[in-house]
Amino acid sequence: MSALHKVTPRKQHGLTIIELMVTILLSSFLLLGILQLFINSNSADRANSSMARLQENGRIALDMLKQDLRRTGYQGCASPTVVSRPNSSRTFPLDAMGVQNVELNEGAGTANDSLVMRHAAPVRMQATVIDPTQVTLISGVNTSFVAGTRYEFILTNCDEVAIFTGVASILANNTDPLTLAAFPNQYVISNLQGANNGAPPILTGIPTGEGSQFLQVVQNAYDIRNDATNNNRPTLYKNAAAMIADVDNFQVLYGVDSGGQTTWLNAGNLTNALRQRVSRLQISLVISTPEEVADVANNLPFAIANIGGNPQLAAIADRRLRRVFNTIVDVRNRP
């Protein structure tokens, strides 16, 4: 008869329900911490990327404005001090800077300013025929005019300047073999007008061809509008076309030199005598990011180029990042 062996039960290893619940709870805390760390890192990365884009947009915006504003008052080979002939449609150098309270507007308080500047386009054309009532010009392939449209021009012999408007004809071909290669296009500018849409200035004494310069007057108007194509965001417009998006504030100050010192004025104080002497512009832009990327709403004001009791723009209570961009532009073509 075989001997009976006593079976000893093995000791089991494992987790109790309570231990398992505690483990899951601790793991959840750990996962939540990792998740929060990821969220914070992602939020910081978005904010840094948005700020980098904001900085670049601001730099580009100021460069674009500088390029335009530095040309104010340019009238070809004529000195900036040369005053336009009587009856001109504009009297440079005065009218190179816009008219106070009409084209140069000071916003109430910290509201946006607006301005208009003019200069001759640095594109060569030549007048081949100059009559009291019309001018025939030749131009390069990159210079064209719409038939029936009125344009403004500067005609100068470098000593005198005449500014007038005229209606462009349809495009014709230049038939002069000596100038054809450089100036293949030909237009006739007729129905000339001068000041207050009246008779044009006298053009006698200004030669044709290389003895004079024939230039188109460029007008640049800047103001802030809401862009319907960009969620009605405030945008800096140039000549009624969106130029720089997400510009919350636009301020302009005008520098008048006197005795080696620059006095800064706003548009409301810029009389005709003073606007002719403006040689510097101070531009202030408050630009924001397109998206709300900050963790909390803004609560800090912004220092802007404004004179009087409103040197700061009140905080805008959203979560967009913002920066103030300031620059001073030397207007080179001024008396």
**First-residue to last-residue Cα separation:** 132 Å
Helix count, DSSP H or I runs of 4 or more residues: 2
Which structural class should the secondary elements be placed in?
Answer: alpha+beta
| Poorly predicted regions | none
Short note summarizing the structure:
The protein has 335 residues and is α+β, with helices and mostly antiparallel strands.
Could you explain how this protein is built, in words?
With 335 residues, the chain is α+β, with helices and mostly antiparallel strands. It has one domain (49-330). Helix content is 17%, strand content 35%. It has 2 helices and 16 strands. The protein has helices spanning 17-69, 272-275; strands spanning 115-120, 125-130, 135-139, 150-156, 161-168, 172-173, 185-193, 213-227, 233-238, 241-245, 247-258, 261-265, 278-292, 302-303, 312-313, 320-330. The longest helix has 53 residues, at 17-69. It is elongated and about 110 Å long. It starts with 16 loop residues before the first helix and ends in a 5-residue tail after the last strand. The mean pLDDT is 88.
Which key features would you list for this structure?
335 residues, ten-stranded antiparallel sheet, four-stranded antiparallel sheet, 2 helices, 16 strands, 35% strand
Topology:
Layout: H1 17-69, E1 115-120, E2 125-130, E3 135-139, E4 150-156, E5 161-168, E6 172-173, E7 185-193, E8 213-227, E9 233-238, E10 241-245, E11 247-258, E12 261-265, H2 272-275, E13 278-292, E14 302-303, E15 312-313, E16 320-330
Antiparallel strand pairs: 1-8, 2-3, 3-7, 4-5, 4-8, 5-7, 6-7, 8-9, 9-10, 11-12, 11-13, 13-16, 14-15
